[in-house]
Design a protein that fits this description.
It contains twelve helices and 27 strands. The protein is an alpha+beta fold and about 525 residues long.
């Protein structure tokens, strides 16, 4: 399909074969329609950004983050706008992968919670999991999009998610959000409905006089009144119980989204550490970890800006797919070689053009495979030497392994077939290094103590007078025993009773979470 849209006398034309050479015509049509819908506005925005940078004398290259977490140039982004879908969350997963590599972590869950949503991706054996088909929106009205992207699940639970009592005296949190305007009641900007942020303020987990470094005082009384009116009163409970209930429901919903990227893909969530970021991620991470029996949580430096860090450590990347049906036992390897070579050559040329000069380029080859008779396929990363040596048995074993992990079973004796071939072309570019921080002479964190306040921990210990530490004053080797709050400009880390925090050499907060035996 070719679709054209006319906006401000600019004709935007997009063709599905430019976005995907993969079969499934409805999904291709849906993808190109979405590209045409957002295209004129994105093209206008990017052209204005380019003009501004040129006027400012910017000497570098303007690059855009894709759904894969890779970068492409503004010219490509202006034509293939849909590849920017979920680029912010994708950058967070790339940042998690980079951080894990520096820490020697192979498996991690990237947990991102902001004002409107909570999102999760996963790193397995040092590589982020990806998908080639996603549904944007609900099942009834969702829009299928057929492009490579990092496998990210999300739920409408964020700091601004509204709590309300619905039919049957049930407490619901989200997906409706107070947004930035008017925002939570505690912001004092006219909001009237209680939110997750308001619940944290009432429970003492957000200090009203330290929010955003003290630049934005929070209205605890207003938050408490809203929770009392809209939640506690209708349910016949006190305000503290209502606020705790809001948080517990939000945590349960966030735990479910983590399960969707782990358990639902055949992974045991207990084998993973959780890297938590976003403004609200550190506030809830240990609670989510407890729910899932995750024993280790990592809070990176500046968690509220961690996705921006992910953008800075991304590489140039181009992804290609070509549908080619073939039974594996009759595989036309010469045809495979030709398709792979064409995609690699095109990707390398585009990456070198985007880099504006020499750049180290690497390739990852994969195939969409299924058992004969199946409808849907799984993507299988296959070492190049298996194709080069025509190792049919090795390719089949690799497919069986992936199928076993994804679905919990494999059929080694069943015939398999290849549906599509894929190549990811990656161009390595310069990126900032993580620098070690100063090491503490004394492991006691008292030098960073700024206050002690009552905090409600619900079933984890009730009301406890809790120390509050300033993160900027903690140095490598400091150890904080829970309960505690660790305060920084754009986020607060909640350390529950029984948890233990160690500040590592890179400044990360590594939390040992007390889980049930």
């Amino acid at each position: 399909p070719i679709i054209a849209t006319l906006t401000a006398a600019i004709l935007f034309v997009t063709a599905s074969h430019e976005l995907s050479k993969e079969y499934r015509e409805f999904e291709r049509t849906s993808t190109v329609a979405a590209n045409a819908y957002v295209g004129p506005r994105v093209q206008h925005y990017l052209s204005e950004s380019n003009a501004f940078l040129a006027e400012a004398g910017f000497p570098g290259t303007f690059l855009i983050v894709q759904s894969t977490g890779g970068l492409y140039d503004a010219a490509q982004a202006s034509r293939e706008c849909i590849r920017m879908l979920e680029s912010g969350p994708a950058a967070g997963v790339i940042g998690t992968r980079r951080l894990c590599a520096a820490m020697g972590l192979d498996n991690a869950i990237a947990f991102d919670m902001g004002g409107t949503t909570a999102k999760a991706g996963v790193i397995v054996d040092g590589v982020e999991l990806t998908s080639s088909n996603v549904l944007i929106g609900g099942y009834a009205e969702g829009l299928p999009i057929q492009i490579p992207m990092i496998d990210i699940e999300e739920v409408g639970t964020g700091g601004g998610s509204i709590a309300r009592v619905v039919a049957g005296h049930a407490l619901r949190v989200g997906p409706e959000s107070a947004g930035a305007q008017p925002g939570p009641v505690s912001y004092g900007n006219g909001g009237t409905l209680p939110t997750v942020t308001d619940a944290n303020v009432v429970l003492g987990r957000l200090a009203p006089d330290l929010f955003l470094g003290g630049e934005m005082p929070l209205d605890r009384d207003g938050a408490a009144a809203a929770i009392a009116e809209h939640v506690a009163g209708p349910l016949g409970i006190d305000t503290i119980q209502a606020a705790d209930g809001i948080i517990r429901i939000a945590v349960s919903q966030m735990a479910n989204v983590v399960k969707r990227v782990t358990t639902a893909r055949g992974l045991d969530v207990r084998d993973f550490a959780m890297v938590a970021y976003g403004g609200a991620g550190p506030l809830h991470a240990t609670l989510v970890a407890r729910e899932l029996q995750i024993g280790r949580v990592v809070i990176p430096n500046a968690p509220g800006h961690f996705s921006a860090y992910g953008m800075l450590v991304s590489n140039l990347r181009r992804d290609f797919v070509q549908t080619l049906f073939a039974r594996l036992d009759q595989a036309p390897f010469d045809a495979f070689d030709t398709v792979f070579a064409g995609m690699r050559e095109r990707g390398e040329a585009e990456i070198r053009a985007a880099a504006g000069g020499p750049v180290a380029v690497d390739f990852v080859q994969s195939a969409d495979m299924r058992y004969v008779g199946q409808e849907h396929a799984v993507e299988v990363t296959i070492a190049r030497e298996l194709f080069d040596t025509r190792d049919i048995a090795g390719i089949k074993r690799r497919f069986d392994e992936v199928h076993q992990q994804r679905y919990g079973y494999a059929s080694p004796d069943e015939r398999a077939e290849i549906v599509s071939l894929r190549v990811s072309v990656v161009g390595e570019i310069d990126k900032p290094n993580l620098a070690p921080i100063e090491r503490a002479g004394d492991p006691s964190p008292e030098v960073a103590l700024i206050d002690r306040r009552p905090v409600e921990f619900g079933v984890l210990g009730g009301r406890i007078v809790t120390p509050i530490y300033h993160r900027d004053r903690l140095t490598a080797g400091h150890v904080v025993e829970g309960p505690a709050l660790i305060q920084e400009y754009a986020s607060t880390t909640v350390v529950a009773p029984g948890d233990r925090v160690t500040v590592d050499a890179l400044g990360n907060l590594q939390i040992e979470v007390e889980t049930k035996s």
